[in-house]
Amino acid sequence: MGRVLQLSPEEMRKLPRQLKAYSPWLANFQASKYSEVLELPGQYTGMSKPLPEYHVKISSFDENVLLMSSMRVPMRIIIRGDDEKEYKFLVKWGEDLRTDQRMEQMFTLMNSIYARSPLCTKASSVPSLDTYQVIPLSLRVGILQWVDSTQPLKDFINDSYRENETKCYGEARALYGKNENYTVAKKAKKRDVIKAYEEVVNKIPWDVLRRGLVRMSSSTEGFFSLRSAFAVSYAALCISQWLLGIGDRHCSNSLVSLKTGRVIGIDFGHHFESAVQFLPVPELMPFRLSPQIVNVFQPIGQVGMLKEIMVSALGALQESRHVLTAVLEAFVKEPTKDWLDFVQKQEGDTQDSKVELFSSKRIELLNDKLSDINPAYITLWAVSQNKFVAKQKAYENLKQAVLGDRGESVRASVGERGLSTHQQVDILLEQATDPNILGRSWIGWDPFL
């Protein structure tokens, strides 16, 4: 596998599909030949005392592998357990998967908070996140639990176009791409951004994503059940990811369960505001709530179905702020490669003092979100640190977009501090759906979907 890391993407796509080409030992492994046993990965969660005597042991490996089409060509393998079941895992290389592991651990902790909090248990639906195991093997190789019966949100939408609509996405993307000079987009006037953005949005039928859930349903009641599952999981995911500053939420970084309709987040390389602070086109939205997602909930809209869940989720996490910050403080004592790369970009080196300063600011940001801050000011701070924005002298224009206009937006009509949980959620929803923000986004984010 080490040799694979040295290959170009083109060479990777020509790789063989047999396990023996990568590890003859694994391909030939039979548990019956050895006195020692190998446990199935991912059975030590850290949430309870392990009971190894009940853990699944590895019997053998499937001889075939599946190579994925993404940039680093990750590989899916199948492990056969001694319980006569097959377990799928994704092998990824070229990344420090400790970041994803820690995010999943934070999600697991948040789930336990949601399950115990009266704010959530008294609500109509208890927020919850679907998680999966991430097992780093080194700083550049690791494996992830394969999530069966799911589809990336982008593919889920693409499969829902009618036959006469198949060109809609390409036309919308081409039209949006006319404004792909992001220096201009950062400095464009609000009315021009909104006009151009709405023109692109109107190229796509309003209900494509909604149709996908309808397609999964056998009845009207089934659709309402799937939509509710989508709402509960997505609202919890949005709040949880915002607290951790997770960005790069394009349509391929969320999976939709084809059985339950629930949404699962993946790929957390951008976290703690890095997508705002370091990307050439800063991601000004707190989470993805683009038109197709909003329209799933029509005629109720996002306020009716999402806000209640978001308020209860954020309130529960705020009540447990000391637990969350304590876990984060433990994580930063062993910075990941991603973390050190961000420090290098910001400070120019990775001296211990610079890493400590960077880490303490991230803990401060989490504490701010768990208290009474106006979320727009978190975004504004990150924009102020973006060197691309500074170089293009675009800060003042983006500041207006981030804070909104007094009298028109909630975030501009309240102060920086002293907000209730309800007000914070109102501002998050407002930011996430503001066409003046969405219309300034990177084209690969597909803000018009």
Give the key terms.
449 residues; alpha+beta; Phosphatidylinositol 3-kinase Catalytic Subunit, Chain A, Domain 5; 2 domains; 6-stranded antiparallel β-sheet; 3-stranded antiparallel β-sheet; globular
Write up what this structure looks like.
This protein has 449 residues and is an alpha+beta fold. It folds into two domains: 91 residues, no CATH class; 294 residues, Phosphatidylinositol 3-/4-kinase, catalytic domain (Phosphatidylinositol 3-kinase Catalytic Subunit, Chain A, Domain 5, Orthogonal Bundle). The protein contains 22 helices and nine strands. Strands 1, 2, 3, 4, 5 and 6 form a six-stranded antiparallel beta sheet that branches. The radius of gyration is 23 Å and the shape is globular. Keywords: ATP-binding, Kinase, Nucleotide-binding, Transferase. It holds the Pfam family PI3_PI4_kinase. InterPro entries: DDR_Repair_Kinase, DNA-PK_dom, FATC_dom, Kinase-like_dom_sf, PI3/4_kinase_cat_dom, PI3/4_kinase_cat_sf, PI3/4_kinase_CS.
Helix/strand layout:
Blueprint: H1 9-12, H2 24-27, E1 58-61, E2 66-67, E3 75-81, E4 86-93, H3 98-116, H4 118-121, E5 134-136, E6 141-145, E7 150-152, H5 153-158, H6 168-177, H7 182-187, H8 190-201, H9 208-216, H10 220-243, E8 254-257, E9 263-265, H11 274-277, H12 291-296, H13 301-319, H14 321-332, H15 337-347, H16 352-369, H17 375-384, H18 387-391, H19 395-403, H20 410-413, H21 421-433, H22 435-438
Antiparallel strand pairs: 1-3, 2-3, 3-4, 4-6, 5-6, 7-8, 8-9
Helix pairs in contact: 3-14, 6-8, 10-13, 13-21, 14-16, 17-19
